[in-house]
Amino acid sequence: MLNFFRSVKNRYKIIIGQKYFFVALLVSSAMLLGGYLVNFYASEFNDTFLYPPIGDSILDNIPTYNLEFLYVWGIFLLLAIIVIYAFVFVPQRGLFVLKTYGILLFVRGIFIMLTNYGPPLGFFYNNGIVPGNYVMQKFLFKNDLFFSGHVAIPFLAYLLFRGTNKYVDLFLLFGSFVMAATVLLMHVHYSIDVFAAYFITYGVYAVSNEVFGMINEKYFGWRGFCCEHKGNADVIKIADKH
Q1: Hey, what domains does the chain have and what are their CATH numbers?
Q2: Which residues contact 91 (CB under 8 A, 6 or more apart)?
Q3: In terms of Cα–Cα distance, which of 105, 99, 201, 195 is closest to 144?
Q4: Confidence check: pLDDT of 229 > 70
Q5: What is the pLDDT of the chain when averaged over all its residues?
Q6: Mean pLDDT on 103-122
Q7: pLDDT in tens, 15-30
Q8: Is 145 left (phi over 0), alpha (psi -120 to 50) or beta?
Q9: Tell me, what's the pLDDT at 19?
Q10: Angle at CA 212, nearest 5°, toward 210 and 218?
Q11: How many other C-beta atoms lie within 10 A of the C-beta of residue 108?
Q12: Which of 84, 111, 119, 123 has the fewest CB atoms within 10 Å around its CB?
């Protein structure tokens, strides 16, 4: 255990010592905060309108189930694991994680503004928040449908961390499938919101990886802080020498 914490300390020592680290940290944090604000206020604005539901061949043939525990605490568990794994076990990817999630949230906010349709028939929260569920009071919107954040968040983590630990890879990928089933069975998302989330999330990941990979190579001389295995191997190799 002591060796583990020493290893983490050494990795942070190497990463923080990189040129422009604090600039990169500021930019990454600003991107995450900006993406969150765009997503939040786009959702809040879109909820001021009343949009009709649309047809869905899958939802039209399944009843609404109460899976609120998974919907609320499942995503919080996934978020907690993502944060801990990123900044304790693979800190060399931490800034890239912040930037890429910032882009994802920004893109989602734009799509929310562009897709004006109401929640599905049988929407679980049609009568408001279930009494006593204070956790959801500030985060539940009806018209923030396209695309599903519950699906996108764990799937993006799978893409960001893949190759570092096969069990973490499987857990995150499986988590995205569980969230997909949950939001569909609760009728809080249409099937297109769920399926499109995988494609859009991969697109965000690919663009972010390419853009920030090139920037890092230009200013750092390596692809550190990025998701490419080349950059990560460099950080780990240096850290092991200290």
Answers
A1: 2-240 (1.20.144)
A2: 8, 11, 12, 15
A3: 105
A4: no
A5: 87
A6: 96
A7: 888 777 898 899 999 9
A8: alpha
A9: 75
A10: 105
A11: 25
A12: 84
